[in-house]
Amino acid sequence: MAFEDRNLKCVECENDFVFTADDQDFHSQKGYQDPKRCPDCRSARRSGGGYGGGGYRGERQMYTATCDQCGNEATLPFEPRQDRPVYCSDCFSKVRPAGGGGGGGGGGGGGARW
C-alpha cells in the first residue's frame, strides 16, 4: 500500500503536523494507531511530562515516616498505615523477598511492603 504525507492536528497544542508516508508505513507494519500528538508534544511527554507512559500526573505527593527496622526517616510514595511495617530504601532492599517483582495477587500475606 502506498502512503502519502498527511496533515494531522495535535490534541495537545492543536498545531498541525505532517504524518509522513514513511511514518505511516512504520505505524502500519507495527499495528500502531495514527499519532495524536505532534513530535514536539510526544517528546515533551516522554521526557518528563508523563509517568511511565500514561498520562500527565504532575508532582507526586510524598510522605515521611520512621523506618521500622533502623529508625531512620523514610520517604514514601504512599501514606503509611499503622498495620503495615515501613522501611527506608536500604532496609527494604534487605527484607524484601528474593525475586521481588511486585506482582501482587494471591496468596500468603507475609512479605515486606514499601
Shape: elongated
As a whole number of angstroms, the C-alpha radius of gyration is 22 Å
Could you spell the SSE succession in H and E letters? EEHHEEH
Overall pLDDT confidence: 80
Which segments are poorly predicted (pLDDT under 50) over 5 or more consecutive residues?
106-112
Helicity, in percent? 10-25%
Strand content bin? 5-15%
How many separate helices? 3
Total number of beta strands: 4
In spatial order, strands of the major sheet run 1-2
Q: Termini separation (Å)?
A: 51 Å
Write the layout of secondary structure elements.
Layout: E1 6-9, E2 16-19, H1 21-30, H2 39-49, E3 63-66, E4 73-76, H3 89-95
Antiparallel strand pairs: 1-2, 3-4
Features:
alpha+beta, 114 residues, elongated, single chain, two-stranded antiparallel ribbon, two-stranded antiparallel sheet, 25% helix, 4 strands
Would you give an account of this structure?
There is one protein chain. By secondary structure, the protein is an alpha+beta fold. It has helices spanning 21-30, 39-49, 89-95, and strands at residues 6-9, 16-19, 63-66, 73-76. The strands form 2 sheets. Strands 1-2 form a two-stranded antiparallel ribbon. A two-stranded antiparallel ribbon has the order 3-4. Residues 106-112 have low confidence and may be disordered.
